[in-house]
Amino acid sequence: MIRVLFLGTSSSTPTKNRSLPCIMLLRDGEQLVFDCGEGCQRQMVKAGIGLRKNLKIFITHMHADHVLGLAGMLMTMSLMGRQDPLDVFGPPGIARFVECLMEVFGFNPDYEVNLHQVSSGVICRGRGYRIEAFEVNHSVPSYGYALVEDDRPGKFDPKKALELGVPRGPLWKALQRGEAVNVGGRVVRPEDVMGPPRRGLKVVYTGDTAPTRSVIEVARGADLLIHDATFDDSLEELAREELHSTARQAAQVALEAGVKLLVLTHISPRYEDTSQLLAQARSVFSNSLVAEDFMELTLRWED
């Protein structure tokens, strides 16, 4: 299960109802934070989310609306007495940015801050998942991120196990762990009683981007695609100039990638009413939503 919490969904500047970009994925006791717009700490407080020791931060690009909240978050963790190392991933400039913060504010945390400049490919692995970075098309070096869970074992067939003479009990557990067992001098292998592997969940977050092939390729079959949808159709030329996407363009990417659910985010402050964006997206890809601050989704495995 993965909980997806939208803490900030605006672009450029905050509004009355929208804070700046920040998305948190909660999985198996771990917090994965994508972008840290200004005010992200307060959004976490309002959402009732504390900062856990199992925490990683991923920055898509070095525009202010995506990274300024990182300073306060790092300092708060220090004030809270954090001891566990913290990994921060980001594009070129992320290390210099954090180093400057520490220098200007005289900030010397008791915990270790590990700064990772990302490139395309797998950038880290956790318990049962990996994070992949991929280049997107924006005005500065920018990366999207995909959380891809490992495949799960196939379904265990108890009837088949009994037919092969494997008694109910510890030997069943061993087979489900992927171990072969010996029954009356005969070896029974996991593949004899287990179905094909079942894929885990996949969540893809683009950050800021114009429509680009890299998103389609990475997002194929994703359970959730969170895509830049800064503008509506009437501002497509502006989107092209600023290397953002319209809601319809995001939906076209979702359709071609064959994702299950599209969530539009990075909404321009000009849209107090987002019904137009939603209608344009759903005209192409029906299973679309517009993100709102504090919206939460729960993704579950399929049987």
Question: How would you portray this structure in words?
Answer:
This protein has 303 residues and is an alpha/beta fold. The chain folds into 2 domains: 2-152 and 198-299, Ribonuclease Z/Hydroxyacylglutathione hydrolase-like (Metallo-beta-lactamase, Chain A), CATH 3.60.15; 158-193, no CATH class. Helix content is 28%, strand content 26%. It is built from 11 helices and 16 strands. The strands form 3 sheets. A 7-stranded mixed β-sheet has the order 6-5-4-3-2-1-16. The chain has a 7-stranded mixed β-sheet with strand order 7-8-9-12-13-14-15. Helix 8 (213-219) packs across helix 10 and helix 10 (247-257) runs parallel beside helix 11 (275-282). It is globular, with a radius of gyration of 22 Å. The mean pLDDT is 95.
Taking the sheet with the most strands, its summary is: 7 strands, mixed
Unreliable runs: none
Structural class: alpha/beta
Percentage beta strand = 25-35%
Number of domains: 2
Extended strand count: 16
CATH superfamily of the largest domain: Ribonuclease Z/Hydroxyacylglutathione hydrolase-like
- CATH architecture descriptor text of the largest domain: 4-Layer Sandwich
Query: Could you estimate the helical fraction of the residues in percent?
Result: 25-40%
Q: What is the oligomeric state here?
A: single chain
Radius of gyration: 22 Å
> What do we call the CATH topology of the largest domain?
Metallo-beta-lactamase, Chain A
CATH class of the largest domain: Alpha Beta
Please report the number of helical segments: 11
- The sequence of SSEs as H and E is EEEHEHHEHEEEEHHEEHEHEHHEHEE
